[in-house]
Amino acid sequence: MTSHFNPWHDVSRGDNLPHTVQSIIEIPKGSKGKYELDKESGLLKLDRVLFSAVHYPAAYGFIPQTYCDDHDPLDILVLCSVDIVPMCLVEAKVIGVMQMVDQDEEDDKIIAVAAHDISVNHYNDIADLPPHMLLEMQRFFEDYKALEHKHVSVERFMGREDAYRIIDASIKLYEDTYGNGKR
Protein backbone atom coordinates (compact mmCIF):
# COMPACT_ATOMS: atom_id res chain seq x y z
CA MET A 1 0.00 0.00 0.00
CA THR A 2 1.39 3.39 -0.95
CA SER A 3 1.16 6.14 1.57
CA HIS A 4 -0.13 9.47 0.41
CA PHE A 5 -0.47 12.95 1.78
CA ASN A 6 -3.78 13.66 3.47
CA PRO A 7 -4.53 17.26 4.56
CA TRP A 8 -6.58 16.11 7.56
CA HIS A 9 -3.79 14.01 9.04
CA ASP A 10 -0.59 15.46 7.59
CA VAL A 11 -0.97 19.23 8.03
CA SER A 12 -0.06 20.91 11.31
CA ARG A 13 -2.80 22.40 13.51
CA GLY A 14 -0.59 25.43 14.12
CA ASP A 15 1.90 26.65 16.71
CA ASN A 16 -0.24 28.84 18.97
CA LEU A 17 -3.14 26.56 19.85
CA PRO A 18 -5.93 27.15 20.62
CA HIS A 19 -5.65 30.93 20.10
CA THR A 20 -4.72 30.64 16.45
CA VAL A 21 -5.16 27.53 14.33
CA GLN A 22 -4.14 26.41 10.91
CA SER A 23 -7.29 25.95 8.87
CA ILE A 24 -7.83 24.32 5.50
CA ILE A 25 -10.56 25.98 3.46
CA GLU A 26 -12.91 23.71 1.54
CA ILE A 27 -15.57 26.22 0.48
CA PRO A 28 -15.05 29.88 -0.44
CA LYS A 29 -17.38 32.57 0.86
CA GLY A 30 -20.31 33.07 -1.49
CA SER A 31 -20.26 29.53 -2.88
CA LYS A 32 -23.38 27.48 -3.56
CA GLY A 33 -21.25 24.37 -3.98
CA LYS A 34 -20.67 22.27 -0.88
CA TYR A 35 -17.17 20.90 -1.23
CA GLU A 36 -15.61 18.62 1.33
CA LEU A 37 -12.44 16.69 1.88
CA ASP A 38 -12.62 13.10 0.68
CA LYS A 39 -11.18 11.38 3.75
CA GLU A 40 -9.70 8.47 1.79
CA SER A 41 -7.92 10.27 -1.05
CA GLY A 42 -7.28 13.66 0.56
CA LEU A 43 -8.77 15.36 -2.51
CA LEU A 44 -11.61 17.86 -2.51
CA LYS A 45 -14.94 16.57 -3.80
CA LEU A 46 -18.23 18.24 -4.67
CA ASP A 47 -20.69 16.90 -2.11
CA ARG A 48 -23.69 18.74 -3.55
CA VAL A 49 -24.94 22.03 -4.92
CA LEU A 50 -27.07 23.88 -2.40
CA PHE A 51 -30.74 23.65 -3.16
CA SER A 52 -31.54 27.22 -2.17
CA ALA A 53 -30.87 30.86 -2.85
CA VAL A 54 -28.36 31.01 0.02
CA HIS A 55 -24.57 30.91 -0.15
CA TYR A 56 -21.79 30.40 2.37
CA PRO A 57 -21.43 33.52 4.57
CA ALA A 58 -17.70 32.96 5.23
CA ALA A 59 -14.88 30.72 4.07
CA TYR A 60 -15.59 27.25 5.44
CA GLY A 61 -13.23 24.43 6.22
CA PHE A 62 -11.68 22.41 8.99
CA ILE A 63 -8.84 22.34 11.50
CA PRO A 64 -6.35 19.55 10.67
CA GLN A 65 -5.64 16.81 13.20
CA THR A 66 -8.91 17.37 15.07
CA TYR A 67 -11.81 14.95 15.45
CA CYS A 68 -15.40 15.32 16.57
CA ASP A 69 -18.33 13.09 17.47
CA ASP A 70 -19.69 13.42 13.91
CA HIS A 71 -16.57 11.50 12.70
CA ASP A 72 -15.21 14.57 10.90
CA PRO A 73 -12.53 17.13 11.71
CA LEU A 74 -13.64 20.26 13.58
CA ASP A 75 -15.39 22.76 11.27
CA ILE A 76 -14.28 26.38 11.05
CA LEU A 77 -15.74 29.53 9.50
CA VAL A 78 -13.02 32.06 8.64
CA LEU A 79 -13.92 35.70 8.08
CA CYS A 80 -11.66 37.42 5.56
CA SER A 81 -11.93 40.44 3.25
CA VAL A 82 -10.83 38.45 0.19
CA ASP A 83 -12.10 35.23 -1.34
CA ILE A 84 -10.07 32.27 -0.13
CA VAL A 85 -9.66 29.48 -2.65
CA PRO A 86 -10.38 25.86 -1.72
CA MET A 87 -7.50 23.89 -0.13
CA CYS A 88 -5.78 27.10 0.93
CA LEU A 89 -4.08 27.09 4.34
CA VAL A 90 -5.16 30.04 6.47
CA GLU A 91 -3.80 30.96 9.87
CA ALA A 92 -6.97 31.84 11.75
CA LYS A 93 -7.44 33.72 15.03
CA VAL A 94 -10.23 32.02 16.99
CA ILE A 95 -12.93 34.39 18.27
CA GLY A 96 -15.89 32.14 19.10
CA VAL A 97 -18.06 29.18 18.28
CA MET A 98 -21.52 28.54 16.87
CA GLN A 99 -23.08 25.54 18.55
CA MET A 100 -25.68 23.79 16.47
CA VAL A 101 -27.52 20.52 16.33
CA ASP A 102 -27.68 18.84 12.92
CA GLN A 103 -29.99 15.81 12.61
CA ASP A 104 -29.82 15.33 16.43
CA GLU A 105 -25.98 15.44 16.46
CA GLU A 106 -23.91 18.24 17.98
CA ASP A 107 -22.05 20.06 15.23
CA ASP A 108 -19.86 22.92 16.47
CA LYS A 109 -18.49 25.51 14.04
CA ILE A 110 -15.47 27.48 15.22
CA ILE A 111 -15.63 31.13 14.17
CA ALA A 112 -12.33 32.83 13.39
CA VAL A 113 -10.76 35.69 11.47
CA ALA A 114 -7.86 35.47 9.03
CA ALA A 115 -4.88 36.32 11.22
CA HIS A 116 -3.06 38.18 8.41
CA ASP A 117 -6.01 40.27 7.17
CA ILE A 118 -5.97 43.74 8.74
CA SER A 119 -9.60 44.24 7.74
CA VAL A 120 -10.77 41.61 10.25
CA ASN A 121 -7.91 40.63 12.56
CA HIS A 122 -8.78 43.38 15.05
CA TYR A 123 -11.79 41.28 16.12
CA ASN A 124 -10.85 39.44 19.31
CA ASP A 125 -14.13 37.90 20.39
CA ILE A 126 -17.42 36.99 18.78
CA ALA A 127 -19.05 39.84 20.72
CA ASP A 128 -16.98 42.29 18.61
CA LEU A 129 -18.68 41.22 15.36
CA PRO A 130 -21.57 43.18 13.92
CA PRO A 131 -24.80 41.41 14.99
CA HIS A 132 -25.92 40.87 11.38
CA MET A 133 -22.88 38.65 10.73
CA LEU A 134 -23.96 36.17 13.39
CA LEU A 135 -27.55 36.26 12.19
CA GLU A 136 -26.37 35.64 8.62
CA MET A 137 -24.38 32.58 9.75
CA GLN A 138 -27.31 31.24 11.75
CA ARG A 139 -29.83 31.75 8.96
CA PHE A 140 -27.54 30.19 6.37
CA PHE A 141 -27.13 26.90 8.22
CA GLU A 142 -30.77 26.69 9.28
CA ASP A 143 -32.18 27.66 5.87
CA TYR A 144 -30.07 25.56 3.55
CA LYS A 145 -30.69 22.43 5.58
CA ALA A 146 -34.43 23.13 5.86
CA LEU A 147 -34.71 23.20 2.07
CA GLU A 148 -33.10 19.73 2.05
CA HIS A 149 -35.74 18.58 4.58
CA LYS A 150 -33.16 18.26 7.35
CA HIS A 151 -33.54 19.80 10.76
CA VAL A 152 -30.76 22.01 12.06
CA SER A 153 -30.95 24.42 14.94
CA VAL A 154 -28.32 26.88 15.99
CA GLU A 155 -28.36 26.58 19.77
CA ARG A 156 -26.07 29.46 20.74
CA PHE A 157 -23.04 31.54 19.91
CA MET A 158 -20.29 31.50 22.50
CA GLY A 159 -17.04 33.42 22.94
CA ARG A 160 -13.45 32.47 22.37
CA GLU A 161 -12.86 30.75 25.74
CA ASP A 162 -15.59 28.23 24.91
CA ALA A 163 -14.13 27.84 21.42
CA TYR A 164 -10.68 27.13 22.94
CA ARG A 165 -12.21 24.40 25.12
CA ILE A 166 -13.92 22.80 22.09
CA ILE A 167 -10.68 22.91 20.04
CA ASP A 168 -8.72 21.31 22.89
CA ALA A 169 -11.35 18.55 23.21
CA SER A 170 -11.25 17.87 19.44
CA ILE A 171 -7.43 17.59 19.58
CA LYS A 172 -7.64 15.15 22.49
CA LEU A 173 -10.26 13.06 20.66
CA TYR A 174 -8.07 13.05 17.53
CA GLU A 175 -5.04 11.89 19.52
CA ASP A 176 -7.08 9.25 21.37
CA THR A 177 -8.47 8.01 18.02
CA TYR A 178 -5.46 8.32 15.70
CA GLY A 179 -2.48 8.76 18.02
CA ASN A 180 -0.15 11.76 17.98
CA GLY A 181 -0.40 12.70 14.32
CA LYS A 182 -0.12 9.07 13.27
CA ARG A 183 -2.91 7.28 11.45
From TrEMBL:
<feature type="binding site">
    <location>
        <position position="75"/>
    </location>
    <ligand>
        <name>Mg(2+) 2</name>
    </ligand>
</feature>
<feature type="binding site">
    <location>
        <position position="144"/>
    </location>
    <ligand>
        <name>substrate</name>
    </ligand>
</feature>
<feature type="binding site">
    <location>
        <position position="60"/>
    </location>
    <ligand>
        <name>substrate</name>
    </ligand>
</feature>
<feature type="binding site">
    <location>
        <position position="107"/>
    </location>
    <ligand>
        <name>Mg(2+) 1</name>
    </ligand>
</feature>
<dbReference type="GO" id="GO:0005737">
    <property type="term" value="C:cytoplasm"/>
</dbReference>
<comment type="function">
    <text>Catalyzes the hydrolysis of inorganic pyrophosphate (PPi) forming two phosphate ions.</text>
</comment>
<comment type="subunit">
    <text>Homohexamer.</text>
</comment>
<dbReference type="GO" id="GO:0000287">
    <property type="term" value="F:magnesium ion binding"/>
</dbReference>
<protein>
    <recommendedName>
        <fullName>Inorganic pyrophosphatase</fullName>
        <ecNumber>3.6.1.1</ecNumber>
    </recommendedName>
</protein>
<keyword id="KW-0378">Hydrolase</keyword>
<feature type="binding site">
    <location>
        <position position="48"/>
    </location>
    <ligand>
        <name>substrate</name>
    </ligand>
</feature>
<feature type="binding site">
    <location>
        <position position="70"/>
    </location>
    <ligand>
        <name>Mg(2+) 1</name>
    </ligand>
</feature>
<dbReference type="Pfam" id="PF00719">
    <property type="entry name" value="Pyrophosphatase"/>
</dbReference>
<keyword id="KW-0460">Magnesium</keyword>
<keyword id="KW-0479">Metal-binding</keyword>
<feature type="binding site">
    <location>
        <position position="34"/>
    </location>
    <ligand>
        <name>substrate</name>
    </ligand>
</feature>
<feature type="binding site">
    <location>
        <position position="75"/>
    </location>
    <ligand>
        <name>Mg(2+) 1</name>
    </ligand>
</feature>
<keyword id="KW-0963">Cytoplasm</keyword>
<dbReference type="GO" id="GO:0004427">
    <property type="term" value="F:inorganic diphosphate phosphatase activity"/>
</dbReference>
<comment type="similarity">
    <text>Belongs to the PPase family.</text>
</comment>
<dbReference type="GO" id="GO:0006796">
    <property type="term" value="P:phosphate-containing compound metabolic process"/>
</dbReference>
<dbReference type="InterPro" id="IPR008162">
    <property type="entry name" value="Pyrophosphatase"/>
</dbReference>
<dbReference type="InterPro" id="IPR036649">
    <property type="entry name" value="Pyrophosphatase_sf"/>
</dbReference>
